[in-house]
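Study this:
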Amino acid sequence: MASNYSNKRKCLSFDTKLKLIEEVEKGTKSKAELCREHGIAQSSLSTILKDKDKIRAAVNQGTRQLKKQRTSTYPDVDKALLIWFQQARSMYVPISGPILIEKGEQLAQELGHTDCKLSGGWLDRFKQRHGIVFKTMSGEAASAKDIDTSEWEATLQKILEDYNPKDIFNADETGLFYKCLPSKSLTFQGQACSGQKAPKERVSLLCAANMDGSEKLPLLMIGKFGQPRCFKSIRTLPVTYRHNKKAWMTSSLFTEWVQKQDRCFLMQGRSVALVLDNCSAHPQVISGLRAITMFFLPPNTTSRLQPCDQGIIKNFKTIYRKLVLQKFISSFDDTGSTNTHLQMSLLDASVMAAASWNEVTPATIQNCFKHAGFVRESTDEREELPPVADESLTLSEVSNLFEKFARMTAPAPQMSVQDFINIDETTETSAEMSLADTASSLQDTEPEGEAADEEDVTIPPVTSKMALKAIESVKTFMMQQQESETSIKALKLAMSLGNCVEQVANQTKKQSTIDAFFSPVNKNM
């Protein structure tokens, strides 16, 4: 019987391969039909499906039309140069081929490749791998720092016309001194703290929410340590955690985050506008995005035009400070110790940060977007916006806790409640990286001599029996309280949580039984 396929092997572009993968995942056509349409054997389709993650990564790097992707001789140099290129473009620095080669060779030296010499052919392949095209910068683009806000206002009105409020997101970074308590020192208040000067108990957070407040994306937390002691035995975190030596956002971390969100939105069938500030860690172009379109605010205008800076982040931090004070006061009540050193690990901080972010209400977020000008021209919603009630309530709670803290400690803190809330407001979360910084960001190392500074916390294993017993105590406690909307809500949550723990425990038992059944036969038998 004659073969349906040519003996000549057919090469498909990465773009075509990705479409094949998506067709298979949709299930609208059989694999045999897809093979006939594209003139390939089923074994070729199987190989494509096996390599789907690599193909998606290649497409995200801009290699849609290539049929074969030649790997770099120096992959670490390739990656470091891409980071440098993205940072330079975000600052509107003109870049040519010779400049890329020169920077590539300098980075190679930093990475230990002393004999590395890059050629024009290497440059062509680098540009192909990452979808880079050199264009002459027009006068308008070159003077981007002088863009008038009226141009942004016109762009914003177009965004509001083209996108549903639930699909308009703003994302912004903020620094967090996660163990900070009110103190006598005002060292960092009102100062821009670099990675070298800021307290070691510092992380950077990326916060992102949509315009109608219906969706807050999980926090991205960036710390200094890859494997903090407190993370040992922990498999699920309430935040996404990444690390580098300075606990800063970098272009590679930001690109990874955007591409991950893009895949999520694509699976949901959404088209999303992502509004960002002009920051060296935010590349102006990220290849392969299919659901997200990025829009950048004019430089030096974020204090007026960025929703997160209108109160979203401040409200989050107010709630976080409330939880920190509650934790300290609770510890004081239990032990009676006047030691103002707060025993709190990075794991505690991740849980408290996620809880604080969860408490930021849709009303607060909507209000902040309106204050930033996210209002259609035909409406006057921005005029006389009242403060949101829950924001005032949270600030009042923090003030009461602050006063209680002051009575418990000596000497009393010489800062106001607002100073305490805003203590890390000007902390840097990113900066222009030197070539050495760019190279070191690729090396999975931790700050020398600082590993011991992380709280030496060991989390003991918790069995399902222990967890259920604790939940029973919570349920009993809530049933013993005066009936209220809060107590009823808490009781329902405790009951639901108990059911979840039961389900997880049963799944674990089932998996253990399966593993035991398929374990190797005892050799002594």
Observations:
- Residues 464-517 form one domain.
- Residues 184 and 411 are 7 Å apart (CA to CA).
